[in-house]
């Protein structure tokens, strides 16, 4: 089965909806602290829209002032300029997505929301299967994961400022590449092949040469705007998933190669999950709030694509064991109404007793 199998993408999109519904049922998300953060998020959404609009407003003001000296009634370049700036800001440079992702490095609220939601997922799982034999149920995720440090070993700790700079470097690099490709696509003669070639190069490894070639061929005839939106949706959904999974990876320490294999083995489902939320994130003002829901939903996602973590003292080989999604085929074949059916192999897990995780889970506030 291909890692980018259509069934995996569809299951990821289904988990977008199921995870969001599960997250919104958590009463812990409606505490005072989260109401306060929600209000801040809405204000941040307004600020984001203003930051994007200011350069465009400045250009419009300049054009308006220039219109007293130059007749723009028969010209179309001014409208194209304003529209192009708006398109570059939102679809090429992904400014709203960048500013929403940056909030992770300013406040720990998203990390708390992930752990809060993971606790809720464990508790609702126990409640849903309370009439079944406890020994047939999966192990809990929250009790052990909360014992991991978010900075790893002391010798390898990275200050929040360094993490923020690393994020800014990653995003700046991607934005620069996107802008260069977009500008090169306007070159005469060869420009029309730039975006299709970028699409082929990007998707060849994920989809294979045949689907990538089809996209390359159709991209030659499609308008430039559609290809840009397609490519940025693909890249942004991948970046979104990496940011949403940061609370997990900040605790379970993978090296670079292990993390690459972890994402590669799950890339189809993660794309379906990420692109679903990416579409919702495009909603003005509410995008920042939806980012919080996406983070809460990722806690539910983790319980479907990873094994329950052992205690930190027994975690030496755990990261390596997770690079391969062991229950992929079983999970992708499950009907939507029965997503909890596949249980972890408890003989392989360091599973605490059935009652103990629930009591430990209630200690989190």
Q: What is this structure's SSE topology?
A:
Layout: H1 6-24, H2 32-66, H3 77-92, H4 95-102, H5 109-128, H6 142-145, H7 160-184, H8 191-207, H9 209-221, H10 224-244, H11 246-249, H12 256-265, H13 267-281, H14 287-305, H15 318-322, H16 328-333, H17 355-361
Helix pairs in contact: 1-13, 1-14, 2-3, 2-4, 5-14, 8-9, 8-10, 10-13
Describe the structure.
The chain is an all-alpha fold and 365 residues long. It contains 17 helices and no strands. α1 packs across α14 and α10 packs across α13.
Low-pLDDT stretches are 343-365
* Beta-strand residue percentage: under 5%
User: Number of helical segments?
Assistant: 17
Number of DSSP strands? 0
Mean of pLDDT:
76
H/E element sequence: HHHHHHHHHHHHHHHHH
Shape: globular
